[in-house]
């Protein structure tokens, strides 16, 4: 592909990303993959160059642009090399005209930036859009961190999580022998720290209420040395189905899965009332803390969607509280830095908060906050609250 044809491809993918953000469609990564699946002629270098253009244009535009061409034209304002691609060459974009729309630069939609600014400084906000490193969690049921450091010579230890390895550049870790042998999992250091904050130990009964495909469930199982009981729940059948093969690869046999019906969670969990040593609520959220990986997520969020999410979060917290035994703990977490999804929801539970010793984070009572700028992780809020005896 010529550089101009790559620019045109980026515009077409950006059009799809913008439509998907508006209509709750697939993630940008999926759309990039789909585009190239239908265009086998594009080589690895073309794919990388187009992908880089797409993500640079997404990162730069705080508000959802009106078109892919406007998004790339915005990028052209900052980058003369991109501007030069609008030269009318065959298969490339038509030249830019003076009056045509160019997406303005920004970190987030105005309404959202204003809410984030309540707790974050300008530097913290900008860091939400930096490129994230690739983090792995060593599965201590199968390997040690020093063994895995030897297996991956480019890796270095994550600064805070004791079982984490970090790579400055992404690579195809899923094809590596340690991954296939279940010795490592891909997991951001912030997620590792949230799992650690649960304080799970061998022999415990743990409910992971929003387990998804089980990233944190597997971390909890490793902390429990494969002994005890984990009930991994989710309302999304497809996500939950991805847990079993991962658990098998990781050598974990203490996980039961339970598919929940949204709105009827308490009934499906009635047998566990007051029985859990720990309940983790890794709640569905706006994902403002994960913009480093999904920068287009900031084009998806609306004030109405945020209200729906906070209502669901408060409801799931109440469902979870009923499962905790006296003296047990409820850990509430979100990968969001919006106060209304974090501290405001957790404070709705009138239980004392534990001090969580993880060597990272900033106090955000009743819990702590992790930020990309200060902690080098995705953005998270989490709190561990103890049910009075
Ligand atoms: C932040 S994600 C969980 C990520 C997961 N814990 C991990 O570590 O990979 C939130 C999850 O909540 C699930 N969810 C949404 N509504 C739910 C409900 N009513 N009950 C339980 N889970 C729900 C979503 O399907 C999603 O998988």
Automatic annotation (TrEMBL):
Q: Which residues form the SAM-dependent MTase RsmB/NOP-type domain?
A: 124-388
Catalytic residues in the record: 335 (nucleophile)
* GO term, biological process aspect, one: methylation
Q: Which UniProt keywords apply?
A: Methyltransferase, RNA-binding, S-adenosyl-L-methionine, Transferase
Q: Which residues bind S-adenosyl-L-methionine?
A: 234, 261, 282
Give the residue range of the signal peptide.
none
Note the InterPro entries from the entry: MeTrfase_RsmB-F_NOP2_cat, MeTrfase_RsmB-F_NOP2_dom, RCMT
**Molecular function terms from GO:** methyltransferase activity
Write down a Pfam family by its short name: Methyltr_RsmB-F
List the PANTHER family hit by this protein, alphabetically: NOP2 YEAST -RELATED NOL1/NOP2/FMU SUN DOMAIN-CONTAINING, RIBOSOMAL RNA SMALL SUBUNIT METHYLTRANSFERASE B-RELATED
Q: Which family does it belong to?
A: Belongs to the class I-like SAM-binding methyltransferase superfamily. RsmB/NOP family.
> What protein name applies here?
RsmB/NOP family class I SAM-dependent RNA methyltransferase
């Amino acid at each position: 592909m010529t550089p101009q044809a790559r620019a045109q491809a980026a515009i077409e993918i950006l059009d799809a990303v913008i439509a998907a953000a508006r209509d709750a469609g697939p993630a940008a990564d999926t759309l990039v993959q789909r585009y190239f699946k239908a265009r086998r002629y594009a080589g690895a270098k073309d794919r990388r160059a187009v992908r880089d253009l797409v993500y640079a244009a997404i990162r730069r535009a705080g508000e959802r642009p009106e078109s892919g061409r406007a998004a790339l034209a915005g990028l052209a304002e900052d980058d003369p090399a991109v501007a030069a691609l609008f030269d009318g060459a065959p298969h490339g974009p038509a030249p830019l005209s003076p009056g045509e729309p160019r997406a303005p630069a920004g970190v987030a939609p105005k309404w959202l930036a204003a809410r984030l600014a309540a707790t974050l400084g300008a530097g913290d906000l900008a860091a939400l859009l930096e490129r994230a490193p690739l983090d792995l969690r060593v599965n201590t049921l199968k390997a040690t961190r020093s063994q895995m450091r030897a297996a991956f010579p480019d890796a270095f230890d994550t600064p805070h999580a004791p079982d984490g390895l970090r790579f400055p550049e992404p690579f195809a870790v899923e094809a590596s022998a340690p991954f296939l042998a279940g010795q490592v999992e891909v997991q951001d250091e912030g997620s590792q720290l949230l799992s650690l904050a649960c304080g799970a130990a061998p022999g415990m009964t743990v409910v992971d209420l929003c387990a998804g495909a089980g990233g944190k469930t597997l971390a909890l199982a490793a902390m429990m040395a494969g002994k005890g009981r984990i009930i991994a729940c989710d309302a999304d059948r497809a996500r939950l189905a991805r847990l079993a093969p991962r658990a098998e690869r990781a050598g974990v046999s203490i996980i039961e899965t339970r598919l929940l019906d949204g709105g009827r969670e308490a009934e499906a969990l009635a047998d566990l009332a007051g029985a859990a040593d720990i309940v983790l609520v890794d709640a569905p959220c706006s994902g403002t803390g994960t913009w480093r990986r999904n920068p287009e997520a900031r084009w998806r969020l609306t004030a109405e969607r945020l209200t729906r999410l906070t209502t669901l979060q408060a409801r799931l917290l109440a469902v979870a509280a009923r499962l905790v035994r006296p003296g047990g703990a409820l850990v509430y977490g979100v990968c969001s830095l919006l106060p209304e999804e974090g501290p405001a929801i957790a404070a709705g539970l009138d239980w004392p908060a534990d001090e969580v010793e993880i060597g990272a984070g900033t106090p955000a009572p009743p819990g702590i906050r992790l930020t990309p700028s200060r902690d080098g992780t995705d953005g998270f809020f989490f709190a561990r609250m103890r049910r009075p005896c």
